[in-house]
Amino acid sequence: MFEDTHDEHVLLTPGPTPIHPRAQRALTRPMLGHMDPEVFALNSEIQRDLREMYGADEGTLTALLAGTGSLGMEAGFANLVEAGDEVLVCANGSFGRRMAEMAARYGAKVRLVTAPLGEAIDPADVAAQLDDSVSMVAVVHGETSTGVLNPVPEIAKLVRGTGALLTVDAVTTAGMEPFHMQGWGVDYAYTGAQKCLSAPPGLAPVAISERAFSRFRARRTPPPLWYCDFGGLRDYWVDHSYHHTVPVNLHFALHAALRAALDEGLDTRQARVRLMGRVIERTLAPLGFSPYVRRPQDRLPTVLALRLPEGLDDAGVRGALRQRGISVTGGLGPTAGVIWRLGLMGESARPEPYRRLMTELAGLLGEPGLVARYDAAVQEELARDLLPA
């Protein structure tokens, strides 16, 4: 039986994240039609704010796809890849492998650049496979499955001037981590509303460069995915002509959450997530938790991947936490039972939700000093005026 626990539940997963209060209020706005002038005005503000979030230039088409981040991934391959195209995919986790599968389904000849789980893609390995026949390079910026931050700026330097497009999965980075689409030379980027922006699931904010749109226009065949055809997307978002019915209430909420993120300041959000990560690592280290990703520069700040202490009953402890109203996510595939992946995106990257976690863990693990240690770490950061309360 469904139990309404909306006043109690603490969501500390790698997505979705707790909905921002401004987004929650925006969901209650009266419905408007998707062709209403007020909705088009709101959409224009969303486009402007997305360009700021992505660091994109004025010529970049920004829009919302009516689906989650995986639709953003699929739309890129459906519109920018044709059968027989050579696509170089960087795969060092579940979502890189998903990119490879999607590209192949759209007829691409996929070349893989891989790295062991918990390690970042080596740009030298990309350079070794990058030649004039490659039409696209695709990489996950923050590999959610393992907590790895891939070196997109370095990979982008290699791609520039080759003629290949650069597609970047920014699902766990855009809005909370440095992202410079124009400066790096990214051609297509996407994220999910429910990640760093703390909006409800169901929208994929995308950014399409002029170069990518030119590639789309030069297609030999129509895109096989009608719903997210970039031409139809532009018709609605730029020319205000009908393509399909968009989820207007989710647009209201995304607009509010995105504006809240920009009002807070992207630099402030980046500092907040890093500091919370240090607080959590410091608190849990005496229990035997340790970073899964060996090199500090390869650690994804927004998804804190921690190796579990020897002997910890992963499923049992997480199940007990869920009974107490706290959701924590374990590993995927080979890392199941090996790591926890703690979400530090949007509204989850704040002291209070993680204090709840420490309070419950203290009881479950018999560690009465855990909360005091957490409080001391938080106060130390607050004393430096770096971490918002």
Largest sheet, strands/sense/barrel: 7 strands, mixed
Task: Give me the count of strands.
Answer: 15
Strand order of the largest sheet: 2-10-9-8-5-3-4
Mean pLDDT, all residues: 95
Radius of gyration: 21 Å
Q: In percent, how helical is the residue content?
A: 40-55%
Low-confidence stretches: none
Per the principal axes of the C-alpha atoms, what is the gross shape? globular
Share of residues in strands: 15-25%
Q: How widely separated are the two ends? A: 37 Å
Q: How many DSSP helices?
A: 14
Order of helices and strands: EHHEHEHEHEEEHEHEEHHHHEEHEEEHH
Structural class: alpha/beta
How would you characterize the overall build of this protein?
- By secondary structure, this protein is an alpha/beta fold.
- The chain has helices spanning 21-26, 37-54, 69-80, 94-105, 123-129, 152-159, 181-184, 210-217, 230-237, 248-264, 266-284, 314-323, 351-365, 370-383; strands at residues 10-11, 61-65, 86-91, 109-114, 134-140, 142-143, 148-149, 165-169, 188-190, 204-208, 290-291, 303-307, 326-327, 329-330, 339-343.
- The strands form four sheets. The protein has a seven-stranded mixed β-sheet with strand order 2-10-9-8-5-3-4, sandwiched between helices. A four-stranded antiparallel β-sheet has the order 11-12-15-14, covered by helices on one side.
- Helix 11 (266-284) packs antiparallel against helix 14 (370-383).
- The mean pLDDT is 95.
